[in-house]
User: Which sequence fits this backbone?
């Protein structure tokens, strides 16, 4: 297993914030998307101070996972 403590907090993917240790290039694509959005907006789009706050910002911007998703997890 790999560590979930990778990537600068503002660009960390939801799965990493939830503690995933088995991840792939998708976490890098998430980070790249955050950086592109930041370049377009001219400011950080989700500047969280903690992992919990970061997840909240992601869910607020992108929507929360459905109850069905959580049941599968």
Assistant:
């Amino acid at each position: 297993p790999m560590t979930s403590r990778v990537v600068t907090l503002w660009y960390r993917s939801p799965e990493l914030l939830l503690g995933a240790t088995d991840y792939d290039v998708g976490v890098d694509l998430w980070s790249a998307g955050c950086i592109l959005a930041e370049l377009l907006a001219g400011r950080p789009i989700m500047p969280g101070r903690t992992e919990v706050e970061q997840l909240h910002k992601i869910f607020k911007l992108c929507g929360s996972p459905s109850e069905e998703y959580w049941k599968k997890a």
